[in-house]
């Protein structure tokens, strides 16, 4: 049965980072604010997933658990049917979230003081896990033209020539919403191979490509280009399972994969959450149509924001995302500082992610989470207009 995405569900007082922790994380009294920041959505997980999890809960025993054949086969079948991508079961390693997996990979593939490339504007946690591991960030800014972003491969080659050991790639990209094309990822992977740079690809948004756009995984690359690649995937963004903490890192290179598994063991990351495995297996097995319905709903929200900006806030510029439900909105024509822009929005009752948090080239932008019922989005748009026209 398809969820009713229009249903407004009260998430306050559920330990929700997005709804309950604005004061602790942002210094903002969120008791009467609409949170449009953290990138999780306000929809229940698919009913079929909830039913299977309830059966598992009713069993009542939650001892040590391991991945079974159903878990692996659900992933393999999903990528084959959904993305026409053949995954070898041996490639699949399982971690307690994409970021822990990327952090372990950074520790494994680099030494303290080594250079790691990230593209900006980019997901701030890539910077966090790199710098907290005492590695050095090299920024490869994306090129923006009238709201459309592309990679600067000439500059990226210069970054590699400085001795970078690893690149963290976001495919599709957070926050700008690009679903990179096959030619773009081939050019990127070829450059990494040429300079012997390990390519870590976060593909957690891949299932959420919007209609008329396609997700192209690095796992679709020619085999020769896969040997320097690790691809992080998860059901969490797709099906609303983020706090269950289970992700998969696909590693075609056998030696690299065995090394990674040893590092996971060294961190005690060799036991898996039985409810998380149950939920991911069920989601991949039962919920393809549910996802189609979700994507249609999110596209309608994107269209609503686009129309609203064009008619009510023409100084803003919004390029609809090719994947994901995050809106990257250019507010630079307002000629406000980032602090001034943020304060106007907060005073009007809306809490976005500020673009400056994604790197200096995000200054003047905001990121809005459109993963909510349309009633909530309509209210947020009223707040947005109030903030920027008074």
Topology record:
Blueprint lengths: L16 H4 L1 H5 L7 E3 L10 H13 L9 H15 L8 E4 L2 H12 L5 E6 L3 H9 L3 E6 L1 E3 L2 E3 L2 H9 L4 E5 L11 H13 L3 E5 L26 E5 L2 H4 L7 E4 L3 H13 L7 H13 L1 H25 L4 E2 L7 E5 L7 H10 L2 E5 L10 E5 L4 H16 L1
Parallel strand pairs: 1-13, 3-4, 3-7, 7-8, 8-9
Antiparallel strand pairs: 2-10, 5-6, 9-10, 11-12, 12-14, 13-14
Helix pairs in contact: 3-11, 4-11, 5-6, 5-10, 12-14, 13-14
* Main sheet makeup: 7 strands, mixed
Look at the helices and sheets and give the structural class: alpha/beta
Percent range for β-strand residues = 15-25%
Quaternary class = single chain
Low-pLDDT stretches are none
Number of helical segments with 4 or more residues = 14
Largest sheet: spatial strand order: 2-10-9-8-7-3-4
Molecular shape: globular
The residue fraction in helices comes out at 40-55%
* C-alpha end-to-end distance: 44 Å
Instruction: Give the radius of gyration.
Output: 21 Å
The CATH class of the largest domain, by name, is Alpha Beta
Q: Write down how many β-strands occur, each being a DSSP E stretch of 2 or more residues.
A: 14
CATH superfamily of the largest domain, called what? Answer: Type I PLP-dependent aspartate aminotransferase-like (Major domain)
Organism: Photobacterium kishitanii
Domain Aminotransferase class I/classII large: 33-384
EC number: 4.4.1.13
Cofactor: pyridoxal 5'-phosphate
């Amino acid at each position: 049965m398809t969820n009713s995405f229009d249903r407004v569900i009260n998430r306050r007082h559920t330990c929700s980072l997005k709804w309950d922790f604005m004061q602790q994380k942002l210094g903002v009294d969120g008791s009467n604010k609409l949170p449009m920041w953290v990138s999780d959505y306000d929809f229940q997980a698919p009913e079929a997933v909830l039913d299977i999890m309830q059966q598992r809960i009713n069993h009542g025993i939650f001892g040590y658990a391991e991945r079974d054949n159903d878990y692996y086969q659900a992933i393999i079948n999903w990528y084959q049917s959904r993305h026409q991508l053949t995954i070898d079961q041996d490639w699949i390693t399982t971690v307690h979230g994409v970021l822990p997996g990327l952090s372990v990979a950074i520790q494994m593939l680099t030494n303290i003081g080594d250079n790691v490339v990230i593209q900006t504007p980019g997901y701030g946690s890539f910077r966090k896990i790199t710098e907290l591991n005492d590695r050095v960030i090299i920024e490869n800014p994306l090129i923006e033209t009238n709201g459309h972003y592309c990679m600067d491969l000439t500059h990226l080659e210069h970054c590699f020539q400085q001795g970078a050991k690893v690149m963290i790639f976001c495919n599709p990209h957070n926050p700008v919403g690009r679903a990179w094309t096959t030619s773009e990822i081939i050019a990127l992977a070829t450059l990494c191979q040429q300079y012997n740079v390990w390519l870590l690809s976060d593909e957690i948004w891949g299932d959420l490509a919007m209609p008329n756009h396609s997700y192209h995984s690095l796992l679709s690359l020619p085999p020769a280009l896969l040997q320097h690649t690790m691809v992080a995937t998860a059901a969490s963004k797709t099906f609303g399972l983020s706090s269950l903490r289970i992700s998969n890192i696909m590693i075609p290179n056998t030696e690299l994969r065995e090394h990674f598994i040893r590092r996971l063991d060294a961190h005690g990351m060799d036991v898996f959450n039985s409810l998380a495995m149950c939920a991911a297996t069920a989601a991949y097995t039962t919920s393809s149509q549910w996802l189609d319905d979700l994507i249609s709903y999110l596209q309608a929200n994107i269209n609503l924001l686009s129309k609203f900006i064009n008619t009510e806030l023409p100084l803003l510029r919004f390029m609809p995302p090719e994947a994901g439900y995050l809106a990257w909105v250019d507010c630079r024509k307002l000629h406000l500082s980032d602090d001034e822009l943020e304060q106007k929005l907060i005073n009007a009752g809306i809490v976005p992610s500020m673009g400056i948090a994604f790197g200096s080239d995000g200054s003047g932008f905001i990121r809005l989470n459109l993963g909510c019922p349309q009633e909530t989005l309509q209210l947020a748009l009223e707040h947005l207009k109030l903030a920027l026209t008074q």
